[in-house]
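During the no-cost extension, the postdoctoral fellow (Dr. R.K.) reprocessed legacy sequence entries with the updated structure-token encoder. One reprocessed record is reproduced below for audit purposes.
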Amino acid sequence: MKKALLFINGDSPKAIPNLSGYDLIACTDGAFHYLKQLKFPLDKLDFISGDFDSHKIEEEIIQQAQNYQFEIIETPDQNKTDFHKALEIIIEKGFDNIDVFGGSGGEQDHFLGNLSVAFAFKDKVNLHFFDEYSSYYFIPKKFTISDVKGKMISLMPFPIAKNIETKGLKWPLYKEDLILGERIGTRNIAENKDVTIKYKKGDLLIFVGN
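Re-encoded structure tokens follow.
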């Protein structure tokens, strides 16, 4: 199954993640600058996309693209975020499994905007976000995660998830509802190696602590 890696303009990862196993690697124009600071191997980059915040692409980016043979894709549509537009490009290239770095941190409206984009794409693509503290993603109605014993597990309704049952958590749920603004399921602990989650209606975002 083909897999893509996308860097967007939130908090930079502390180090370059393991790049093996990815068939495509891309970034938005804002993320390109922190990748340079991390000394990212630009020969691994397939494309950089974005509105580039002006009508003229920086000469430095053009030079790097010529040197390392990655594609520059201008996406000037101001009705969509750079993240949204980068996902559309990756999906058009035939990928439906995408890992994302830089989705959180920075300005919080960007973080919430990234979650909104992920919600819009949740039935089209498997999106997994990674940051310094956790990985997070929307989960299907029946879901099992493995090798998580001792890790923090948080369940966030988006905005409602009904009739939730969990197995393997310190504080289990038995056919209970989570509703944003009323009750959420943060800071639980995985007591088993495998954790199983089922729910009937709504949408659920899981955070798995590092």
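The chain has two domains: 3-132, 137-209. The two ends are 25 Å apart (CA to CA). The remaining legacy entries will be reprocessed before the final report is submitted.
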